[in-house]
Structures are given as structure tokens and as C-alpha cells.
């Protein structure tokens, strides 16, 4: 897992705002154009990217697929960039700023190396606070029952950031499947539950399933609405 920070707005966009950057992240993509593409193509699946607007932190995201020239069906009115990749937003921020020693902000995209202790520790701490270490993608089309889904063929699998996690009976996990709303924004299906052995007579090559808890499968927007009204 590599760490990066990116300035996500077109060059010379004087009227660009923090909210515009946030709206791009909400589509489930980040990207760039021009000379920055050469650096952008070094992103790997599982990398963490701090998305910023100048010195203001907008979001922390995880890379879900390899950077590439965007296809026609992936283009969105907010996608000003030629090259992009799918990302999973892990957290959004309103009043968080960076700057000073450890940060070089004029650049569009920069990798944060471990030897840059200030910036590296800052991003790692943000990641730990997202509780995404036990976040995994699944396919809800692979449900045995309304609350049981295929999870892993092996005793370990990679989390959202490519870290190999050992699986065992009762391990609590968060799961998701990519989805979107009718406006082109990302709105994943999400659930929580625990790892349990596949004791069904189906798919004997699958060792572990996820037993979904009583909250069931919901859209992220529904979870956010319920949180705001609670």
C-alpha cells in the first residue's frame, strides 16, 4: 500500500471550489491529464490517496483499479481529466488542512514516502480512523440466503488496501459492492457481519462466507441518512 496526495482540479480553474472536488470524488473516480499522467499511472490497486483542494483535505480514498485512459461509458460531466481510475471513498473532511514541513503542495500528484514521517504518519492515522482495515468487497449476487454471502476460498484475503488479513470464525468485517445512483454518483451497497465457515452444500471450493447482521444490506446513502437523523 503506497500513500499519495493529489490536487484534483484542472489547471487554471479559478472558479473551481472545494465542493467541486468533493463532487468528483463522489462519482467514484479520480484522474488527471497532461504531464501528470506519467506519475498517475504509477498508482496501484490498494493505494491510499489524500484528495485535496490546495491545503484543504477533501477526502481519503482507496484505489480500486489501474489508472488508464477513460472509456466513453466512464465519462461524467465532472470528469475533466483524460485518465482516471475507480476509487472507494473512505472518508470526507470539512475543516482539515495540511501544509508546512513534509508537504509539497504545488504539485498535482505526489507519492508520500515512509521517510517523509510527517506526511506519511498523517495519512496513515487518517486511514486508521476510517476503520477500513476490515473492509472487503463482495458480490451480493452471490448470496446463499438473504443474510449469507460468499467471502473467500482461502484462509486469508486482501482488504480494500491490499493488506492480507487472516480469516477466522467470528471475525467482524464490513463488506460492500460498488453501485451508484441515477445521477452518476457512487452509492455502494454495504453491510456488516462476521466470517463463518461455509457449511452449506453449495460451492465446496469456498471456505468462508460472511454472515450479515440484522441491519442487512443497505445503500451508503441510506446509512448516512439514518446516521444524520439518529
Description of the structure:
There is one protein chain. The chain has 4 helices and 16 strands. The model has no long low-confidence stretch (mean pLDDT 89). 16% of the residues lie in helices and 34% in strands. Strand 9 and strand 10 (148-152) form a beta hairpin. The protein is α+β, with helices and mostly antiparallel strands. The strands form 3 sheets. Strands 1, 2, 3, 4, 5, 6 and 7 form a 7-stranded mixed sheet that branches.
Taking all Cα atoms into account, the compactness measure Rg is 19 Å
- One letter per element, helices H and strands E, the order comes to EHEHEEEEEHEEEEEEEEEH
- Strand-residue proportion: 25-35%
β-strand number: 16
Distance between the termini: 35 Å
Dominant shape: globular
Bin the helical content: 10-25%
Low-confidence stretches: none
Q: What attributes does this structure have?
A:
single chain; 230 residues; alpha+beta; seven-stranded mixed beta sheet; 16% helix; globular
